[in-house]
Amino acid sequence: MARLTVNGRGVEVDVDPSTPLIYVLRNDLALNGPKLGCGRAQCGACTVHLDGQAIRSCQLSLGEAEGRQVTTLEGLGTPGHPHPLQEAFLVEQAAQCGYCTNGMIMQGAALIQDHPGITEAEVLEGMRGNLCRCGTQPRVVRAVMSAARKGA
Question: How far apart are alpha carbons 137 and 126 in whole angstroms?
Fold first, then answer.
């Protein structure tokens, strides 16, 4: 039985500790924000926060996450009180097909948190590992910069 905190709630799951965290989040905890894209930590669709840091949940085992704080897109904000970056994504229309949106928001939120006063160049560099095949990257950058200016 593995114990961890997900979106502020203590959870216990009876899953093999070597199971990638993405499967536990989606299959056992019914959290569908993180997406399984490449499964190799190269696309960013599965990004979550682990103890406040953006990580790729497809390459982190449940055992490595045990006892730690995991935040998914569902825990970043709520429909009634979205995170400023979630709000900025809506305003900037930064999602097209939506598959990369989870990773873009989670990576962007971590960048804003870690770099107050972040520059556009830092956003571009920090988001390099998050892939979008629809071409919404310019809108994503605008959304991240907008949220950063609002002090997200």
Answer: 12
49-73: per-residue pLDDT in tens? 999 999 999 999 999 999 999 999 9
Closest CA to 102 of 26, 19, 51, 15: 26
Instruction: Tell me if residue 83 falls in helix, strand or coil.
Output: coil
> Do 94 and 127 meet the contact criterion of CB atoms below 8 Å apart?
no
C-alpha pair distances (Å), 118 with each of 64, 79, 85, 96: 30, 26, 14, 25
Q: Where are the alpha helices (DSSP H) in the chain?
A: 21-23, 62-65, 73-76, 84-92, 101-114, 120-126, 137-149
Question: Within 13 A of 115's CA, how many CA atoms are on the CB side?
Answer: 17
